[in-house]
Amino acid sequence: MKFSEKWLREWVNPAISTNELSEQLSMAGLEVDDVAPVAEAFSGVVIGEVVECGQHPDADKLQVTKINVGGDELLDIVCGAPNCRLGLKVAVAMVGAVLPGNFKIKKAKLRGQPSFGMLCSFSELGMGDDHSGILELPADAPIGADIREYLDLDDNCIEVDLTPNRADCLGMKGIAREVGVLNQLDVKEVAISSAKVTTEEQRGIQLAAPDACPIYLGRVIKNVDLSNPSPLWMQEKLRRSGIRSIDAVVDVTNYVLLEFGHPMHAFDNDVLSGDIVVRMAEEGEKLTLLDENEISLKSNTLVIADQDKALAIAGIFGGLHSGVSEKTQNIFLESAFFSPDAIMGKARQYGLHTDASHRYERGVDPELQLQAMERATELLVAVVGGEVGPVFEARDASHLPTPAKITLRAERLARVLGINIDSARVSDILQRLGLEVTVKDDRWEVVAPLYRFDMNIEEDLIEEIARVYGYNNIPNQAPVASLKMRDSAEASIDLNRFKDLLVDEGFQEAITYSFVDPKKQSMLFPDLEGLVLPHPISSDMSVMRVSLLPGLLGALSYNQKRQQSNIKLFETGLRFTPSKSEKSGVVQESMLSGVLSGNTANEHWSIPSASLDFFDAKAVVENIMSLSRDEQNIEFKAESHSAFHPGQCAGVFKDGQLIGHVGAIHPKLEKGLGLQGKTFAFELELVSISSRTLPWIKAISKFPVNRRDIAVTVKETVDTGKLLKSIEKLGVTDLIDLNLFDVYKGKGIEPGYKSLALSIWLQNPERTLEDADIQKSVDIVVQALENNFSASLRD
User: Fold this and answer.
1) 54-64 as b/e: b if 16+ CB within 10 A
2) Gyration radius from the chain CA atoms
3) Other CB atoms closer than 10 Å to residue 473's CB: what's the count?
4) How far is CA 629 from CA 618, 620, 689, 763, in A?
5) What angle do CA 190, 330, 379 make, to 5 degrees?
6) Total Cβ atoms within 10 A of residue 715
7) Could you give the CA distance from residue 682 to residue 622 in angstroms, rounded to a whole number?
C-alpha cells in the first residue's frame, strides 16, 4: 500500500515528524518499506499561460511560444512538446531555475530562435517517468504562482508492506484508523451525501451464486461527458499512490479503492443486455479482458454477466467489450462484496494480479458497499455530470459473515504481556479499533468489526493491545521458571526404549507419510477402507493409512531397487481406522511396526549364509515383549491375515487380547508391492506394550534348589507352549523354574508322537525339601499332563 503523507494527514494529523510516523507504523506491525519525496528538489518553476503558439520556422517538431508568467513582459520559449497549445496553463522553468539533477536553465537559442526558459514535463520536474508532453495544469491555476506550492509537492510517498491479515489497511480509511489509535486521536471521516436521483432508470440484479457474492449494488448514471478529465488534485493523489491517471471514470473508481480499500468497476450500460447476473462461469466460456487477452474461463470462477454473456471476472478484471470508453454516454456502476474464498487463487489461475483481487482475496468490509457507491457517484457527477439513477441492491444475508464475539480477561491479558495496562487505556484501544466494547467486572465483552477478518479469539485482542500499546513500552524481563521433576510412572516403558532395542537389533528408523496409495493399501487390507482426503497431494497419497506397513514396505522396496539386500526398518506412528462411533469419524492408534528382508548377517567368510525366516521376525517381537517382564501373559497363536502368508502368520496376544501380528508378507502381494524375495513384518499396538510388571524384592532362600528331569510323550499336534504354561499355572508351591531342554522324535517313539524333556526346579524359602515333598510336586505335574494332554511318562 502506497500513499501520500499529506493525504493521510487530511484524515488524522498527529504532531509527529515523517520519520516518527514511519517508525510508529512499523512498530505497530504495518512495516514501512520506503519513504520518498513526491518530487525531486527544484526551484524557480512557476505557473504560466501559453498566449501565443506557432510553428518554428526552421524545425518541424518545435514550436515558438510566448508565455505569460505574470510579469510585465511575455517570455519567448521554444518548446518541442506535442501537447503545447494556445491557452494552456503550464509549468515554466524560468532563466535561473534549477531542475532535478542540478540542471540550470539559461538563455539559449534553438535553431536561431531565442528561448528564455523551458516548459516542463513530469519527468523534468522529478515527479515521474512521463515525458510524453508538458505538464497540463487546470484553467484556474494562478499565473506566476510557485508550482511547488500550488501542487503541494513538499510531500512524501509512504509505502507500507502489509501482512495478509491486515486487508483493512489497504485504504486510507484503515491507515488513518491505525494512526488515530496509535496517537489517541479522532479520525476525520469523509463527508458523503447521498446523490440526488434524477432518473428512474435502473438495471436488475440476480445473485446466482450467493455464497460467493452475497451483496451486489448497481446504479445507472446517464449522459456522462467523459471528455472532462479528472481534477488535478485527484490525479496527484493517484500518482503519489503509484496509479496512473486514465480517464475520469477509472480515476474515480481507483480513488475510492485507495480511499476506502473498496474496489469498484464501471460498465458501459449501453452494451449490457437485460439483468446483471452474478454467477459461476461455464467451463470453457470465453472472455476478452481489458488488456485485450482472451481467456477460457473455468467453472470455479465467479463472473459478472448479463443475460447473454460474461462481462468480467468478479473482483479481479473487467472485460474489454463491456468496459467504459471515450464513446460511452451511460455507465453502470457496481459495488459488491465477494467472499474471499471465492476470489482466492483465481487471479493466479489466469496469470493475473490486480489491485482489486489483492483486496478481495484478503477480505473487503461487507458493510462498505453503499458508502463506496455514494462516494463514487458524488465524485463522478462532479467531474463528468450526468443523471443519477437509484441504487439497486441484491442481498443474501444468510451468506454474509457474522461479527465475532470475544471475551478478553484482564488476568489473561496481564499474564500474557507480563504487565498491567490501565483498563481505561485498554477500553480506549479497543473502541478506537472499531470494536463494540462492554466492560463487565475484570473482562471486556467485545464484538469485532466485520472488516477485521483476523479477530476471532482472545489472543487476537491481546496482540492488538500489545502492538498499539507498543512492544517497546513493555519492559524486558527475563522469565522466572522453577524446576520441577515431572511425574513419571515407573511401570511405563518410554518409546525411546523400544527404538534403542530395535536399533541394537540392526534396524534403522524410518519416517513415512500418513497418506498412502489406496491401491497398495487395499492389497494389504482389502476389508479396511481408508479415510479419503478431500484435497490430496497426489493420487498415490490420497488416503490415510490404516497401518504403518504400506509405508514401510514402500520404503523397503525403494531400498531393494537400489541394490540394498539386507534391510531392517521400523517406524512408530499413528494409524487411522474409520469409525462411525467417533465424532471425528476416525480412531487414531499409536503403532510400532517393522519390516525385514535378506540374510541374517552380511556376507562374511566365517558366518554361514542363511536367509531370514519367520522365527527371526518372531524373535524380534519376543525381545520387544520381554521389556514388559510379563512373558507369562503373552502368547503367539497361529492367525490368518490378508497381508501375511497363511502358514507363516502369528497373532500376538496379551492377557488374551490380540495386540498385533508377525509373519511373512503374502507371496501373491510381493510383485504388486515391488518386493524382491521373502519379506517379514510385524505390527504391535504401542499402548498395549508400553507398561511393564514391576519386580518385587524378596529374600534369597538359604536352602538348596532341587532339580528333577522328566520326559513325557505327547502327540505332535500338542502346542508345547500351552503345555509349559499349564504347568506354571498348576500352583505347585515350590516350583521356581521350568525348562524344556529337549524335543525328540524317532526310534523308540511312536509315529505321530514326540518326546519332551523337562527340567523342574524346586525350592522352599523356609526349609530343605525332602524327597517326599519333591516327589509329590513331580507327581502333580505328571498327573496334570496326563489329564490335560494325554501325556505319558517315557520309560
Assistant:
1) eebeeeeebbb
2) 43
3) 10
4) 17, 15, 10, 22
5) 15
6) 12
7) 11
> Residue 731 has what pLDDT?
78
Single-letter amino acid code for the residue at 137: L
| Residue 513 near residue 542, CB atoms below 8 Å | no
Residue 588 pLDDT: 92
pTM: 0.66
- Taking 3-state DSSP, the helix, strand and coil percentages for the chain, each rounded to the nearest 5, stand at 25, 30, 45
In angstroms, what CA-CA distances link 558 with 551, 667, 773?
11, 18, 63
Question: Above 80 in pLDDT, residue 584?
Answer: no
For the stretch 178-187, pLDDT in tens is: 999 999 999 9
Amino acid at 227: S
Alpha carbons within 13 A on the beta-carbon side of 788: 18
Residue 316 CB neighbours (<10 A)? 26
Find cell 489497504 and name the residue.
Answer: 170
Cα–Cα distance for residue pair 149/235, rounded to 1 Å? 16
Q: Which amino acid is at 775?
A: Q
For residue 262, how many other CB atoms are within 10 A of its CB? 28
Query: HEC states along 706-762?
Result: EEEEEEEEEECCCCHHHHHHHHHCCCCCCEEEEEEEEEECCCCCCCCEEEEEEEEEE
Cβ atoms of residues 610 and 599 within 8 Å: yes
Around Cβ 740, how many Cβ atoms within 10 Å?
13
- Looking at residue 474, the DSSP 8-state letter turns out to be S
Dihedral, CA of residue 192, residue 193, residue 198 and residue 201, to nearest 10: 50
Q: Tell me the three cell numbers of residue 207.
A: 445473485
**567-578 and 586-597 beta bridge pairing:** antiparallel
Number of other residues whose CB lies within 10 A of the CB of residue 658:
13
- CB-count burial class (<10 Å; 0-12, 13-18, 19+) for 320: middle
Angle between helices 172-183 and 248-260 (to 10 degrees): 30
Instruction: For residue 555, give the H/E element and its range.
Output: helix 549-560
CA 272 to chain centre: 39
Cell numbers that stand for 337 in this block: 462484496
DSSP secondary structure of 417-446: HSSPPPHHHHHHHHHHTT-EEEEETTEEEE
The HSE-up count of residue 330 (CA atoms within 13 Å, CB side) is 14
CA 298 to chain centre: 24
CA distance linking residue 412 with residue 476, whole number of Å: 19
Looking at the predicted structure, is the pLDDT value of residue 637 above 80? yes
> What letter would DSSP give residue 352?
-
Q: Residues 402-437: pLDDT tens digits? A: 999 999 999 999 999 989 999 999 999 999 999 999
CB 628 within 8 A of CB 587: no
Give me the helix-helix angle, 458-469 and 410-417, nearest 10°.
Answer: 60
Cα–Cα nearest to 164, from 368, 448, 361: 361
Q: Which helix (H) or strand (E) is 216 found in, with range?
A: strand 215-222
Classify 571 as helix, strand or coil: strand
**What residue ranges in 108-175 does DSSP mark as E strands?**
108-110, 113-115, 117-119, 156-161
Nearest to 340 by CA among 318, 319, 357: 357
Is the pLDDT at 529 greater than 90? The verdict is no
What are 304's three cell numbers?
459478472
| Residue 469, helix vs strand vs coil | helix
Between CA 486 and CA 149 the distance in angstroms is 72
- 337 neighbors 369 (Cβ within 8 angstroms): yes
Q: Are 333 and 323 in contact (CB under 8 A)?
A: no
How large a percentage of the chain has pLDDT more than 90?
75
Q: Are 134 and 91 in contact (CB under 8 A)?
A: yes
Q: How far apart are CA 157 and CA 168, in angstroms?
A: 20
* Contact (Cβ atoms closer than 8 angstroms) between residue 406 and residue 448: yes
Which triple of cell numbers denotes residue 541? 497419497
Largest CA distance in the chain: 146
